[in-house]
Design a protein that fits this description.
Largest sheet: 3 strands, mixed
Radius of gyration: 50 Å
Number of helices: 7
Order of helices and strands: HHEEEEEEEEEHHHHH
Strand content: 15-25%
Distance between the termini: 151 Å
Number of strands: 9
């Protein structure tokens, strides 16, 4: 019994020494290293990392807008009579100028037309004259007008106009083109009124005042029509149309 008690006391002392050494190891910094090593692990476990956000883009609705050329295209009309903006034709620029020619055409999307038997048709043949759009007669296109050029001048002045082919006329090339035209516009002055004023009140410069030429009108007024000579000359010049409005326009 005495030997067992001595062995038990020795074992207890050994355990106390181990406990003391363990406490000393922790207090000396060995445990803090393990704690620091365990913290990143804990953070790596708790930190879910950068979050990713996904934006759901709704699908764009299909466009239901009607093409602008559809407004010019009569519904269920004859395909051969559709405006040029409503069809696409396979033209051939090697045709003989001025000769009749046929081209294969197809109606554009959203355009409906029929043939001679009132059956729906997409492909058809169109008959036209082989010529470019700028070679058309003046009645087949419309041009912009200019009010900044002199219509009464020698030689006659020209201006650059932008011309557009009428809808139902078919031709080769661009349907909008520039063209040099003679000045041809009016400011509302009447030739008959100017001539009547020149005959009756020309000695007082009424004809020149009416045409907007106030300097010449003052000259005639204070010279009594150039003692009648200027009056007679103006009657002849206005009568033949040589003297016109000061803004350069034509008589009505």
């Amino acid at each position: 019994m005495a030997a067992a008690a001595v062995t038990l006391q020795a074992l207890c002392r050994f355990c106390r020494v181990l406990l003391f050494l363990f406490q000393f190891y922790i207090l000396s910094g060995g445990g803090s290293l393990n704690l620091e090593q365990s913290q990143p692990l804990a953070q790596s476990i708790k930190d879910p990392g950068p979050t990713r956000t996904f934006t759901v883009v709704p699908r764009a609705a299909e466009s239901t807008d009607i093409p602008p050329y559809v407004m010019k295209c009569p519904s269920n009309g004859l395909c051969s009579r559709l405006p040029a903006d409503c069809v696409e034709c396979k033209t051939n620029f090697s045709c003989v100028y001025g000769k009749p020619v046929t081209f294969d055409c197809t109606v554009k999307p959203s355009v409906t037309c029929v043939d001679q038997d009132f059956k729906s048709q997409k492909n058809f043949i169109i008959n036209m004259t082989c010529r470019f759009c700028w070679q058309l007669p003046e009645t087949d296109y419309e041009c912009s007008n200019s009010t900044s050029c002199m219509t009464v001048s020698c030689p006659r002045q020209r201006y650059t106009a932008n011309c557009t082919v009428r809808d139902h006329i078919h031709c080769l090339g661009n349907r909008t083109f520039p063209k040099m035209l003679y000045c041809n516009w009016t400011g509302g002055y009447k030739w008959s009124t100017a001539l009547a004023l020149s005959v009756t009140l020309g000695g007082f410069g009424a004809d020149r005042f009416y045409l907007g030429q106030w300097r010449e009108g003052l000259g005639k007024l204070f010279s009594f029509g150039g003692l009648g000579i200027w009056t007679l000359i103006d009657v002849l010049l206005i009568g033949v149309g040589y003297v016109g409005p000061a803004d350069g326009s034509l008589y009505i």
